[in-house]
Amino acid sequence: MFYWIAILLSQTLGTALGDWTADTGCVGYAGGVLVFAALLALVAALYYWMRISRTALFWAAFVLTRPLGAVVGDFLDKPVTNGGMALSRYSASTVLLAFIVVSIFLIPQKAANRKSTG
Is the whole-model pTM more than 0.70? Predict the structure, then answer.
């Protein structure tokens, strides 16, 4: 039950936070992308350089990906006059798919280290 409540809240509130950040005119779409990307970079830095609960860092990253996705999507398909790139939905989806595929190949994947208990 906790998992599904967390999913529901992170998806709904995360999207709303991303849209609110970009639409209020405070930072705009490109600024919103930078804000949430910087927050995710901070989570990554904390993972590598601090002794903070990995569970807490996972959930922080999980929650931050939703507003980042909302702002990136808006940035790609909103009109140029509103601060976007005016790509069609298909073009924006293609850009995002290409980014995901390139990231999978560029970011090395490795198995988790398992400590033996014997």
Answer: yes
